[in-house]
């Protein structure tokens, strides 16, 4: 990381919504949604060429409002969903819709970073996720291993399961459940588990984390007071079916085994302000990335709770050195603990 020159991509407007295009297997591609009250908002399609260390991009217009959340279909690289705010009857509502990008952009033909976005194309609306009876949308998640026809949305205190029909031009609400009880009952985040035949979803509201079986829409576990303050984000370990990561406004990142939620398996306290996002690396689940409003992105190497707890990312020399010390169990445990490091990625320099 230290040997490569940093690659910086600038946006015309503010942005807080980013997602990888998981259906694209031949390129490293991200979608970024902007937030502007005065101008048409945009979705930037960003390709990173890791061989040449350059970025290529294209821009799509998202004219219906500020983008608060964005997610890409796992099956169709041309389809995405956004949660956006709009004003209706002097009230601000957060809605959700499914879109298709122009066909020519799906193949990865992009402009250079210096080209103007004045000729940006417009997204094609496929369908709305009607939240009229349920409240403001907080997020949308696709079925991880599916065909791109099922997704969930979070609307205030409702968890909604949708089926996309007629080439995704129609969204049918197939099931739902509502939070009941005292306290803050609005969902802040949700994550669909890639395990258990994609029958489980985890949600966060206030300081609690809940697991749901979407076949019956019943709660299967609850972690009360998972964080000292608001829970911001969740992510499932892609290789260990019961492991879940969470982060929140208490500046902490926690790892849970959902079979025993009495206490976290591990806790990280590397950030100094709210932790907004946590994500596992899909190929090497010991690598966990977190982003915070302390202006830092931290990559942590969580070897001891990964699917390969003895570490397959070390090189041959390091591996042989570790093997030389296997006789001393105490030293082995100490080495394992020392392997759990964090790399801080500093923010880009400010522009004058």
From TrEMBL:
UniProt-listed PROSITE patterns: WD_REPEATS_1, WD_REPEATS_2, WD_REPEATS_REGION
Family matches, as SUPFAM superfamilies: Putative isomerase YbhE
Biased composition (Basic and acidic residues): 322-334
Stored Gene3D superfamilies: YVTN repeat-like/Quinoprotein amine dehydrogenase
Highest rank taxon of the organism: Eukaryota
First and last residues of every WD repeat: 224-260
Keyword annotations from UniProtKB, A to Z: Repeat, WD repeat
A GO BP annotation: regulation of transport
Keyword Repeat on entry: yes
Domain EIPR1-like beta-propeller: 7-299
Region of interest: Disordered: 311-352
Record bears the keyword Repeat: yes
SMART domains: WD40
Entry's family note: Belongs to the WD repeat EIPR1 family.
Name the record gives this protein: EARP complex and GARP complex interacting protein 1
Organism: Podarcis muralis (Wall lizard)
Protein's gene: EIPR1
């Amino acid at each position: 990381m230290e040997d490569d020159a940093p690659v910086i991509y600038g946006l015309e407007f503010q942005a807080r919504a980013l997602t990888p295009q998981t259906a694209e297997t031949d390129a490293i591609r991200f979608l970024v949604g902007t937030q502007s009250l005065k101008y048409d908002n945009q979705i930037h399609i960003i390709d990173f060429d890791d061989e040449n260390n350059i970025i290529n991009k294209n821009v799509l217009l998202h004219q219906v409002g500020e983008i608060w959340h964005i997610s890409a279909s796992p099956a169709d690289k041309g389809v995405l969903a956004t949660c956006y705010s709009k004003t209706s009857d002097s009230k601000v509502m957060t809605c959700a819709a499914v879109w298709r990008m122009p066909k020519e952009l799906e193949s990865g033909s992009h402009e250079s970073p210096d080209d103007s976005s004045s000729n940006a194309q417009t997204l094609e609306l496929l369908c709305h996720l009607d939240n009229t009876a349920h409240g403001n949308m907080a997020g949308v998640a696709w079925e991880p291993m599916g065909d791109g026809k099922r997704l969930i949305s979070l609307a205030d205190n409702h968890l909604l399961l949708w089926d996309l029909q007629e080439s995704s031009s129609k969204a049918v609400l197939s099931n739902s459940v509502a939070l009941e009880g005292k306290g803050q009952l609005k969902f802040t985040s949700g994550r669909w588990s890639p395990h258990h035949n994609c029958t489980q979803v985890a949600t966060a509201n206030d300081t609690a984390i809940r697991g749901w079986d979407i076949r019956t829409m019943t709660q299967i576990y609850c972690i009360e007071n998972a964080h000292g303050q608001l829970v911001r984000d969740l992510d499932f370990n892609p290789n260990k079916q019961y492991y879940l990561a969470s982060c929140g406004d208490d500046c902490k990142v926690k790892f849970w085994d959902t079979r025993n939620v009495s206490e976290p398996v591990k806790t990280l306290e590397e950030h100094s302000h709210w932790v907004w996002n946590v994500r596992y690396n899909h190929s090497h689940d010991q690598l966990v990335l977190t982003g915070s409003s302390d202006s830092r992105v931290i990559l942590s190497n969580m070897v001891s709770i990964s699917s390969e707890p003895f570490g397959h990312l070390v090189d041959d020399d390091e591996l042989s050195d570790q093997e030389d010390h296997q006789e001393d169990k105490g030293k082995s445990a100490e080495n394992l603990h020392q392997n759990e490091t964090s790399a801080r990625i500093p923010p880009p320099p400010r522009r004058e």
